Amino acid sequence: MARVTDEPREPRARLSRERVLRAAVALADAGGIEALSMRRLGQELGVEAMSLYNHVANKDDLQSGMVEMVVREFEMPSDEADWKEAIRKSAISAHDTLLRHRWAPNLMMRVTAVSPARLCWNEFVLGTFREAGFSADLTHHAYHALESHITGFTLWQANMPFDTREELVDMAQDFLRDFPVDDYPYFIEHVRQHLEPSSPSGATEFEFALDLMLDGLERLRADG
Fold first, then answer.
1. Average pLDDT over residues 178-200
2. Cα distance between residue 108 and residue 54, in whole Å
3. The domain containing residue 135 runs over which residues?
4. DSSP 8-state symbol, 6
5. Residue 147 falls within a domain, yes or no?
6. Which DSSP string do the residues of 40-70 spell out, in sequence order?
7. Is residue 44 packed enough to be buried (19+ CB in 10 Å), middle (13-18) or exposed (0-12)?
8. How many C-beta atoms surround the C-beta of residue 19 within 10 A?
9. I need a labelling partner for 35 at 20 to 30 A (CA). Which of 64, 115, 203, 214 fits?
10. Do 57 and 99 belong to one domain?
11. What per-residue confidence (pLDDT) applies to 188?
12. Domain count, the chain
């Protein structure tokens, strides 16, 4: 009788910086940045933790690389579109990307190294404003207003104590059950609005504030 042998194993993918960073991002997505360690990352890749240092210098380098991977997912402003629409699409893309990687906004605030992808996004945004006729001074203020909205709003949203709309509704209902509703009618009105279904065609809260900002910047540009 012929000897039965095991099927040949697929060769293990060669370790690279790109592969290390992608695995780190996936681990952080699954368990948060606190769940990420060099040992855990090595286990995920099937190597000893020391092997990772051939591709990342240290923890700071690893985290900088993770930020780079996330920012690569941002949509760059298009040269062909109207400046306002180009900035709008890019800002929404950045916001959506950071919500997919909910650990990233906090990490971006701590990482000091400026990644190539982040520099590229900065340059495209600044260039879009300047080429649309914004002065250097107005571009400076517009850029910081835009970045603050993306980062601040996303940080607020990513750190909410719930993950789904169902959890939000449960929290709001529990809150209303014991709250003195007659003493704070406008606040209660606001809380109850969170319980209403969102309009499928309506802008999100992020987009609502973004559009107010862009409309205001357009008026400032027109005023010269």
1. 79
2. 24
3. 78-159+194-223
4. P
5. yes
6. HHHHHHTS-GGGGGGT-SSHHHHHHHHHHHH
7. middle
8. 13
9. 115
10. no
11. 85
12. 2
